[in-house]
């Protein structure tokens, strides 16, 4: 699903009105019907609603919703905030319709003395401002938002929490934005929903389709996309009836050090559980028995060092290389990594300590093999690129980095962001906080190495790998719960996750 800016959404809206064609007031009605049907499913019939309405079309949605609710047993009160003399045309039409129906009490809020009592068991609907927000909230609106945020009532935001910008909130004050329990966003999510600092404002968000015109959605360019299961299925290659293990590639995983052999085991198992033909795991000498016992399916390449990575085998026979989980950051490992960068012309995935070594030796950045995949978490990313003021800034820097160095980068976390050489950015939609546990990232490296070895292009390997990793995490969390989930469970659930993608 593409993600558009507020400005683009307004264009899509206008195109739909002109080309469906549909009157804008009817498009608003369609949006209100979607809100209404979401509410009907969620709340019992006697529920009371306090709807707070602003001057624009977001307010218009709130008024149309109030009319639909009032025709049922739901109890509704409307509060119209007087922040400008004129309402938008469709907001005014809906106000007139609601007034003429005479079923709902409509109060005006002109000063903070007009704020109503909010009952804990009511549901507040935020229809103050939507994607037409042009500046951070101040004055009466800010005071009302602060007031709403102190209440214990459940808060449902229409389209976007009032006060929050759809994209860049770096100059905004997030304390002055509505803190919703639910945000019901029309047709697309907003970019800002995917950034961690906004989670308290956005709450649980959902997309409500309102039938915007598919042609303009297909044609309009956006660098941002939220990846779903269909996007992933389309990228999967078939496994042929007559295929043999040579077809699925031989991967080299460089991983582990004294005390961190678990990383090599997890990544190796994950690679083997993701379709690779052959795997060799390069480890320090002291890890030999552990590795052969724990992962008999993997061949072992032994470093001359007992405890760390200092060299790698001839690369000729490998289709792809993965390096980093648990290798430590010693000087000799840095030298070996530097050499690998110079020599390697194979697909490569870099994680964990390989990235930390780069953070300590910034000159290495410019030697990164083109097209390789990097999988930092936020801290590793900032060691590499420098500190960032917020997630929006971090996302810009990530896109720039990918473009400038011509690499694919996975910034891991909730909604992991995957950027490519063209500066495009794909957000992953699977995964859960249960995956915030030691070794999860090692599993991902193994999966991506496996896909690279099978000949998937870097971007596909990253997108598919991140998706299936999160899916395995979701399936594991469903059965085991988030607290109990450990990285080994991700490996255990990979078979089910792959099977689901092949359905
Ligand atoms: N796109 C779709 O698919 C559909 C969209 N729909 C709905 O339309 C919504 C967008 O509507 P919208 O453009 O009228 O914007 P909205 O935010 O309601 O109000 C803008 C007004 O507020 C004002 N204003 C701005 N900032 C302010 C501030 N800080 N403090 C005070 N005032 C401020 C601004 O004034 P100005 O900036 O000109 O000074 C202007 O008067 C969208 O979110 C969705 O709910 C659906 O109905 C149907 C399909
Ligand atoms: N809240 C979350 N939602 C979704 N995925 C998460 C969440 N927290 C962590 N993850 C995923 O778990 C993995 C953690 O990787 P990483 O931080 O490298 O762990 P480690 O270094 O312990 O292996 C990443 O793929 C990340 O996207
Ligand atoms: K809103």
TrEMBL record:
Signal peptide: none annotated. Gene3D superfamilies: 3.40.1190.20, YjeF N-terminal domain (3.40.50.10260). Binds 1 potassium ion per subunit. K(+) binds at residues 58, 126, 162. AMP binds at residues 412-416, 441. Catalyzes the dehydration of the S-form of NAD(P)HX at the expense of ADP, which is converted to AMP. Together with NAD(P)HX epimerase, which catalyzes the epimerization of the S- and R-forms, the enzyme allows the repair of both epimers of NAD(P)HX, a damaged form of NAD(P)H that is a result of enzymatic or heat-dependent hydration. Homotetramer. This is Bifunctional NAD(P)H-hydrate repair enzyme. It comes from Ancylomarina subtilis. The lineage of its organism: Bacteria, Pseudomonadati, Bacteroidota, Bacteroidia, Marinilabiliales. The gene is nnrE.
């Amino acid at each position: 699903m593409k993600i558009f800016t507020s400005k683009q959404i307004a264009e899509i809206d206008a195109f739909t009105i002109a080309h469906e064609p549909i009157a804008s007031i009817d498009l608003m009605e369609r949006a209100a019907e979607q809100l209404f049907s979401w509410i009907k499913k969620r709340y019992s019939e006697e529920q009371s609603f306090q709807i707070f309405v602003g001057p624009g079309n977001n307010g218009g949605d709130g008024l149309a919703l109030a009319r639909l609710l009032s025709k049922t047993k739901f109890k509704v009160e409307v509060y119209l905030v007087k922040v400008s003399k004129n309402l938008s045309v469709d907001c005014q039409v809906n106000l007139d319709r609601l007034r003429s129906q005479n079923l709902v009490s409509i109060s005006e809020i002109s000063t903070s003395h007009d704020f109503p009592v909010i009952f804990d068991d009511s549901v507040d609907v935020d229809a103050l401002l939507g994607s037409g927000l042009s500046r951070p909230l101040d004055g009466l609106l800010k005071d009302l938002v602060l007031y709403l945020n102190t209440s214990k009532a459940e808060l449902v935001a229409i389209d976007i929490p009032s006060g929050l910008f759809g994209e860049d909130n770096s100059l905004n004050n997030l304390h002055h934005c509505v803190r919703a329990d639910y945000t019901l966003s029309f047709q697309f999510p907003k970019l800002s929903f995917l950034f961690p600092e906004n989670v308290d404002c956005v709450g649980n968000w959902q997309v409500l389709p309102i039938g915007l015109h598919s042609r303009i959605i297909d044609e309009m360019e956006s660098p941002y996309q939220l990846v779903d299961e269909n996007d992933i299925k389309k990228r999967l290659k078939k496994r042929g009836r007559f295929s043999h293990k040579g077809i699925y590639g031989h991967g080299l995983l460089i991983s582990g050090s004294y005390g961190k052999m678990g990383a090599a085991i997890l990544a190796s198992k994950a690679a083997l559980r993701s379709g690779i033909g052959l795997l060799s795991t390069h480890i320090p000498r002291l890890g030999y028995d552990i590795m052969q016992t724990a992962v008999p399916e993997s061949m072992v390449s032994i470093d001359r060092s007992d405890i760390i990575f200092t060299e790698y085998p001839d690369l000729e026979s490998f289709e792809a290389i993965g390096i980093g989980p648990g290798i430590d950051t010693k000087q000799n490992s840095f030298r070996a990594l530097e050499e690998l960068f110079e020599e390697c012309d194979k697909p490569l995935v870099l994680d964990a300590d390989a990235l930390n070594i780069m953070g300590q030796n910034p000159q290495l950045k410019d030697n990164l093999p083109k097209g390789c995949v990097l999988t930092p978490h936020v801290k590793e990313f900032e060691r590499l690129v420098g500190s960032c003021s917020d997630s929006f800034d971090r996302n810009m820097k990530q896109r720039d980095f990918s473009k400038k160095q011509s690499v694919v980068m996975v910034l891991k976390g909730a909604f992991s962001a995957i950027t490519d050489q063209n500066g495009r950015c794909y957000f992953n939609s699977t995964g859960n906080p249960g995956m915030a546990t030691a070794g999860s990232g090692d599993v991902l490296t193994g999966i991506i190495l496996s896909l690279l070895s099978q000949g998937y292009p870097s971007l596909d390997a990253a997108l598919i790998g991140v998706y299936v990793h999160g899916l395995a995490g979701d399936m594991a969390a469903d059965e085991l719960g988030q607290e109990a989930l450990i990285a080994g469970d991700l490996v255990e659930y990979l078979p089910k996750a792959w099977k689901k993608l092949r359905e």
